Amino acid sequence: MSDLFRHAGTLRADYDAVDWSATTLGPVDGWAPELRSAVDLMLNSRFPITLLWGRDLVLVYNEAYTELIGDKHPAALGARTEDVFPEAWDVIGPMLHGVLDGEGPTWVESAPLPLERKGFLEECFFTFAYSPVHDASGAVTGIIDISTETTSQVIVARRLQLLTRLAAELAAVEHVDDVPRRAVEVLRSVPDDLPAVDVRLRGLPLASTGLPLRPRHGLSISDTLVEETEEGRIAWVPLTPSEPVVGRSLLVARLSDRLAPDQGYLDFLVLVAASITQAMDRVAAREAERTLSEALQRSLLTQPPGAGDLVVAVRYQPAAELAQVGGDWYDAFLLPDGSLTMVVGDVAGHDQDAAASMGQLRNLVRGVAYSLQETPSRVLSGLDHAMDGLAVDVVATAVLAQLAPAVAGQDGLTLSWSNAGHPPPVLLAADGSARLLETTPDLLLGLQADTSRSDHTLALAPGDSLVIYTDGLVERRGVPLQESLDWLLGVLEGRQSLPPEELCNHLLGQLDGRGEDDVALLVVRSAAA
What we know:
- The chain has helices at about 10-15, 35-45, 65-70, 80-85, 90-100, 150-170, 180-185, 265-300, 350-370, 375-390, 480-490, 500-510; strands spanning about 50-55, 60, 105-110, 115, 120, 125-135, 140-150, 195-200, 225-230, 230-240, 250-255, 310-315, 325-335, 340-345, 395-405, 415-420, 425-430, 435, 455-460, 465-470, 520-525.
- It folds into 3 domains: about 5-150, 2-Layer Sandwich (Beta-Lactamase); about 155-290, GAF domain (Beta-Lactamase); about 300-525, Phosphatase 2c, domain 1, CATH 3.60.40.10.
- The chain is α+β, with helices and mostly antiparallel strands.
- About 30% of the residues lie in helices and about 25% in strands.
- The longest helix is centred in the middle third of the chain and has 38 residues, at about 265-300.
- It comes from Nocardioides luti.
């Protein structure tokens, strides 16, 4: 046989087995010089190269190329390209004929080319170049194809992109029950890897997804199970290995029939399941923290006392955002002289520590106010000293107000208050007008023990209402504070006929579930004459 194939390596026997005279190339000894030179160059390369020769594009390739075509070898050697690659011919056929017709070389990167090379039609990607080979007259007599497979890189990048998007989408989920729904929405957007997918949580009803209800074979404690079914190749991936095997939470997916169920595919499914599990654990932990913090906060916020002709209503509403239970509080209590003391404050922070600090500060205010029986400014100054001496290391805003009978001969009540860096209270007059009780706020609590504080006074006529609140009622991202305060006045104006309880409901109802922070609210009204 010809020495032309001496560098064919393990393909030498395959070359010798081909009846080249039965092909359009003819006997090897009669091959044209340009073909012999191209074959010699190709067989001396370790890079995947094939020649596609003549108008029939007969295949002649090297050892490295066999790794790209799988079980198409050895039948592909000496065969027509269109006969070997019918599944890809609509893509490569026009390109090859363009090169043969003198249109010049081509080059494509990571082009999708389906190949049937492992017993099924496989999703594949290749970067390749078709270059013309000329004879002595300059005519194109064949094509040299230099190829590299990029299937693995393309699929890995696609899966990493999906995992990144899944993590980002699940990071915004705030309730455990929403995790499976959002995860399935993301996963179903990439049908190349997951033609059908579902997340099944233990104890919840199964949705109709076209996937089997349960595996035919039992699941182990933590392993992924892949089964061949009438619906296709189905993978069952445990979400929570610690759950009992029976009735456990699962990721169920029908695998692509164009991809082999190799270890990379199964590892990808495990990563998907892990992302969902981590999101559920994280959200569950946040919900538990929120529930605990809210329970703690509500346990510290008692109902106001009866105060003669005064009607007091209070509310606490946690933020719409899951983790935003914080340090807002209200309080109302009677002093020994019968005057009513009211406090609305906000400890900096949004966690269990803030809620606990709020309870500590609330009790300090009560103790200082009850023991001193002084004006609001002196009570807050006493609170500053108590916080400093007792090492209560928090910062808070607050309005402390007192209502006492007016001087002899006058109707109504005298309102006195002191403001430690807090939003201004609102006076809703009996005639329906509303105005801010704006003063120059004093320093926040907890910053300076000997800071100077001021008192402010106002006559409260029968039927007038005082509204004290925390910033969660008015502050909004991107909205100037003054605009939010004007909004509050607009919401209150003309609502003087609403009882204090209904007025609280009206104010909180304006938030419509959009509260970005928790809200403490206190409304007190002097009985109409």
